[in-house]
Each structure stands twice: as C-alpha cells, then as structure tokens.
Amino acid sequence: MLLRRLTLWMCGRFFTMAALALLLSVLFTLPVLAQKSAQLGRFLDQVQAADIVPGADHFGALLEIAPIAPALKGEEIIGYAYLTSDIVNTAGYSGKPIHTLVGLDVDGTIIGLKLVEHHEPIVLIGIPQARIDASMMDLIGFNPMQAAKNGEAPPQVDIVSGATVTVLVIGDGVLRSAGRVAHLLNGGTIETAGPTRMVDPQGGAVSNWETLLGNGAVRRLHITVGDVNEAFALSGDPKAMKRPEPGNPDDGFVDLYVALVSHPAIGRTLLGDTGFERLQSQLGTGQAAILIMGDGRYSFKGSGYVRGGIFDRIEVTQGVETIRFRDKQHERIADLATADAPSFKEIALFRIPTGVQFQPAETFSLQLLVQRAIGALDKAFTSFALDYRLPAPYSKAVPPAPKAPAAAKAAPIMDINNPEGATSASIMAEIANFGNGPDAPLWQRIWRSKIASISVLVIMLGVLTGIFFFQDILVKREKLFNRIRLAYLLVTLFWLGWVAHAQLSVVNVLAFANALRTDFQWSYFLIDPLIFILWFSVAAALLFWGRGPFCGWLCPFGALQELTNKAARLLHVPQITVPWGLHERLWPLKYVIFLVLFGVSLTSLGLAEKLAEVEPFKTAIILHFLRDWWFVLFAVALLVAGLFIERFFCRYLCPLGAALAIPGRLRMFDWLKRYRECGNPCMRCAVECPVGAIHPEGHINPNECISCLHCQVLYHHDHKCPVMIQKRLKREKRAAMASPSMKPFSPVDTKGGVAPLNASSQGEKA
Description:
By secondary structure, the chain is α+β, with helices and mostly antiparallel strands. The chain is built from 35 helices and 16 strands.
C-alpha cells in the first residue's frame, strides 16, 4: 500500500511539474501572442468615422508610431482615432480591459468618445450603458497639451452611483491616453515653463513634523462642513442641496495631509529608518511614493477599494497624467515615527504605479472626491484639490540635456566558454524583469502586481493536490478530515471569493469558445492571473478527477452553500430528501441551461453574458450582495433553498458545473472506492451524498460528483459502514478470545469441580 501511494505521489509530482512547465511555456514562449495587444482594427469596423471624429467620412491606415488611425474627410486628415486599451492600462472592476474609442482633432483636443466593449458586471446588468456614456461627456473639449502647458487640472467625470470604479477607470483611461497620443502626434515634446526639476536625494535633513509642515514638505487641506455644503450648493444639484452635511459650518469635515515620502529626508522623518528602508526595497528605480494622512468624519480611503480594488475617493493629477491607486499599491501605516506628529485616524502609503509619467519634483495635485447620498441608491459628488510641490531644499533644477545621437542597442555578450551559463543568466534576468517597466505588456504588469495573491492561490492548489493524493490517510481520521475540509471551504469563500474575487463563471467558458472562433489572443485571458491559474488547474484536474476538485473545493459560491447548510443543520433546520426519480429528472436542467447559453453565445456573446445571470456568482461573491434588489432576492432564494436541500443550485441549475462535467468524463483515475455491498443492501453513502451523485444501486455518477470525499470517510468508518462494522466485530472477537481472562482451565478435580491451574501449588501449601 505504501509503495502504491508513493508511486501515485511521484506520478502526481510529475504531472504537477509538467503542468508548471506548460504554464511557464504559456507565459514565456508566447510573448508574441501576449504582446499583440493592438485591437483598434477590429473596433473601427463597428463604428462610423463621424461618430468618433465629427465630419470624417473614413479612417486611414494605422500610423507606424502607435496604433492610431487618422480620420479623413476626403483626402484631408481632420483628426485621429485610437483605442484606450492600446495605449494605457484600462483594467476595470472585472480585471479585464475596458475598450473605449477616442477621437482627437489635429490639435489634440478630445472631440469624440465611444465605449465599445467591456466586461464590467455592474454595467452589463443593472446600470444602463447610456448613463456611463453620458458621464463621459464632460471630457469632450479637453486638450491635454494645452492643460499641461497652462497648468490646468483635467475635468472630472460625472460619477455614476453604483459604478464609481468603472466610471473612474474609463475617465482615467481616456485622459491618460489622450495625453500620450497628443504627445506622440506633436513629435514627442510638451512645452513646459522653466527648467526641469528633479529630486535631490542628498537635500534636506531628517527633522520633525513641525519642520516639514513649516517648509512645505508636508502640505495640508482642511475642509469644514460649511465648505462641503457650499461646494454642493455651487454644483447646482437640488437633491444634494436638500441634504446638507449636519453640524456647525466651522466643524471639521476632513483634515488631509500629503508628503512625498520616497525622498530620504522626508521618508526617514515620517516613517523612521526601518520603515523607509522597507519602502525603498519595494520601490523600483525612479519610482515615487506619497503618504496621505487624514482625520475627521470623512474617510479619504472609504471602503470601495475592498470590493473593487481601486481607491475611488482620491487620485493624483500631474500634467496630462491622472493616477489612480489600487489596493496592491497601498500600505496601511499605524503611526508616524516623529514624536511631535499629531494622531491621525487614517495613514496610508501609496506607491506611484509603474508605467505612468510622474515627475515627483514637479507640482502635482491630490484630488479628494466627496460623495453625498441623495437617495436609496443615488449619490452626488464634488471634489477638492490639494496641490503639492517638493520644496527647494529637497529638489534641484536641471537644465535640458542636449540630445545625444541614438546609439545602437548592444547585443548581450555571450561567454564562449560557458554558453549555457550565459543563456541561464539571460533567462533569469528576463524572469526577474518580468512585468517591469512601462513598455511591459499590461498582463505582465498585472501578474507582477499580484505576486502575493498568486502565491496564496498556488499554495491552496498544492494543499488540495496533497489532499487528493493522500486521501486514504486523511479519510480514515474523520474529525481531522472534516476540520481540514471546513477550513479549506472557509478560505475558498472568504479569501478566494470575497477578497480576491476569483470566482469562475460559465461566462469564461463562453468567452473562450468565442475567442477560438474569432481573434484568439492570450493577452485577453492572461489579464486576470488568478482566474487564469484557476482555469489552468481546473483543466489539469479534469484529467485526474473530473470536475470535483473545483466544484467541491474551489468554488466560492459552492462553499457558501455548503457552509450555510452546515449552519442550518446545527440549528436543526429540517432537510428535504428529494426522491430519486425526481432528482434524476431535475439534474439534467443545468445541462439544458448550459446548452442554451452556449447556443446564444454563438450569435451574441453579450446577450449570453446577460442570460448567464442565472448564476448568482456576481451578486453573492463579486458584488457582496450590493446590487439591485431583484438580483439579491434571486441569490438569497437559492441560498434559502440550499438550507433545506444541500447544494440545491449545484445539483440542478449550475451551468458551469454542466460545462465542466462534459470534458470531466475523460478523467484518467477513479480513486473513489466501493464495496460489492454498496447499494445492495447498504445505501448509506447514497443517502448522505450532499449532491445525490450516488445511484441507489451503489455506483457513483462522475458527472454529478463534487469529490467531497464523504463517501470515502464512510468507506473506512467502522461504526457506519456495514462492511467495516463486520470487520471490526470480527477483530474485536479475535482480540477478546486472545484475552487472559479467556484462557482454558485445568482438568476436573477429584471432587467434581474444575480446579484452577495453580491448584497443585495450593495443595502443597495445605
């Protein structure tokens, strides 16, 4: 048995290494596919030129410098069109790019916008796209080149309540990309007044809070209740004016401070030597970081970033750049190192994202978005700005450097005595630089920013692989196995689902099938590393065990159903046993649902995505039940049904489970053991199976099995399984017969009694 288990373990290691090798080949040997991200061509055919650049009648060939299409009226170029996702990172709430077509006139002014494709769940269902389109209209007429030249801040988009993150990402993508495209179209230069300033690492000295506040290294923005009410009154929104902020006009609303802590003197003063050294180890070459401190009744962080990963109340603007922070660039700071600093309710460290054009020594502006509820679901917004300029003691002016002739890029020198070593070093250097720099593909930058989450997921997959390979050892220890399974389901629900939002969906299956038929690109699927790794592991698991590892262990909504049912059982909620005849006719429903969705996706993927709302995953897992009431009611109804019928949705309605069950028939192993007595006469496993995957005659339906291993616990249980009970009774009988109390007596004595074995010795004593 040990040799067999060791052999299986070695096979598992082999297949795991093979899977990792295949994953690495996808990541590193398909760079051409991944980097082929220019998708402007496929969207230009879907719009009229005049819709993007008014007055144009057709588009010309793409420019060589970038994926930008000139818009022509006859033979005259009157503007340009481009796709935001080809120029900047536009990943939204879903983790996938938001594609927006933008039109610029020949002077670089934004004259047209059109949202052409997205995968934002909150916009696909629940909020009309017309509201999203209308929110972008304030960007029309903005010229990023002129704004940068005149020191003007970019316009604020009209926030749509309920889709704050999505709207901010779209607006951010339009503004940043417009600045870069205008920069390119004007020969790559932007006129600036005065000499270029740069950070002087040797400037300044470690001091205290009062010194930094006095010399401007720490800047303050104090907003009162009166300031907020006045700002909303000036906005002209009558609903916002009717709900003023309560309190005295002089009462503090928020007290905000900002400092450039990537400067050594400022950083060591506020973070201390240890904190600054840790920050330096996290920053790349030339990367900056700012510290934001806040106090008062209004939080500059809010709670939106917990759900969407993006801080929707703050942004940094500088010239044509608008910088928004994600949770991966954020670190919470408990206290400041300098003793004379005041106490703050919130202190947050933000690292400026790589790939943005940010000059830390030049003036930048911290924008604070203030929101006010004006209804059950609607909010109004206004903003306040805090300008920051690194003081002279910490910076220095640098005259423009003369242009040097372009030098040919030197080829790497290979050691002819050790070519393998040179190749290895080159590969290691490439891996170390994976996702670094502004020229790295979007998917690489996202993967590098989510190293911690990827590591946790890989550990989860490794633990699950160990559970399956050593299942015979675990299931013999019922309490230990049940605790391990409970802990795993909790991690799956809370971290994988509610925190990481890594919930697979049938939409992923439909999108993959559609991409195979049209313009398949790896970059689209690599954009979300957790989802990609999960799908890769599911594909590998289908070859070993079928759909069970995902459905039974890695599905957050499945975990939610099982955990709520366990709670219901503890509260003695009666359980409904569905008759086998009815159950057998209900479980094919999920296959019908999947086939309908797949058929619709062949003609309209967008409609199929909307119909896929039969999955409550977005509502319950991605959006945390923060959605329109009918979606919440549907999700809650399924969970309530699951209180009485365990995993009700998994059994009868889940199209994703049906999609995985079809290729799951190709699995190589069948490690679920059965006795000849299973089903005749014993039916305990069939009765206790949480999804009714065991037929009354005893065999397991692999299409329905979720690999919870409960039947294997019963298989080895010597107080529940009749076969094991008989074995235990025989074992106990043999042990009883071998007991000293059951040893034979000596022959009958002369008085007719049975004499003990020591009778002779007793007689001698007498």
